[in-house]
Design goal:
signal, flat, 3-stranded antiparallel β-sheet, alpha+beta, DUF4189 domain-containing protein, DUF4189
């Protein structure tokens, strides 16, 4: 009877992928980061990635990378702004989510909740540019 080959390549692949995900830097707002973005998992709405950058495009890229690493599936940017805050509101009952933005945390959370338009909504995440 022939033994099957050990499954080391699969373990190495899992370890390599895990290391690549762990290697993503934690987003931190810096003094020159005028833009902020929030991204959410399209499938679950649960994973949220955020990023800041010198441009909206850069902030979006960072947010998408972190969301994708966290969720393991497709993410989309749902909120972003310059010199302010971005929030995402979520309704657990319906699974819907909506992003919002504003000059401060209070305004961005109110915007996300108003756009969601659900009495069951709650703010899942808020992040601000520098």
């Amino acid at each position: 009877m022939r033994k099957s080959a050990p499954k080391r390549p699969a373990i190495a692949l899992v370890a390599a992928v895990g290391c690549a995900i762990a290697a993503l830097p934690t987003p931190m707002a810096r003094a020159d980061d005028d833009f902020v973005a929030l991204a959410v998992s399209v499938e679950s709405g649960r994973a949220v990635g955020w990023g800041t950058g010198a441009s909206q495009e850069q902030a979006n890229r960072v947010a998408l990378a972190h969301c994708t690493a966290e969720a393991g599936d497709v993410c989309e940017v749902v909120a972003g702004t310059r010199n302010g805050c971005a929030s995402v509101a979520f309704d657990r009952l319906s699974g819907r989510f909506q992003g919002g933005s504003g000059p401060d945390i209070t305004a961005s959370t109110a915007d996300a909740l108003a756009k969601l338009g659900s009495p069951n909504g709650h703010v899942k995440a808020t992040h601000c540019s520098s």
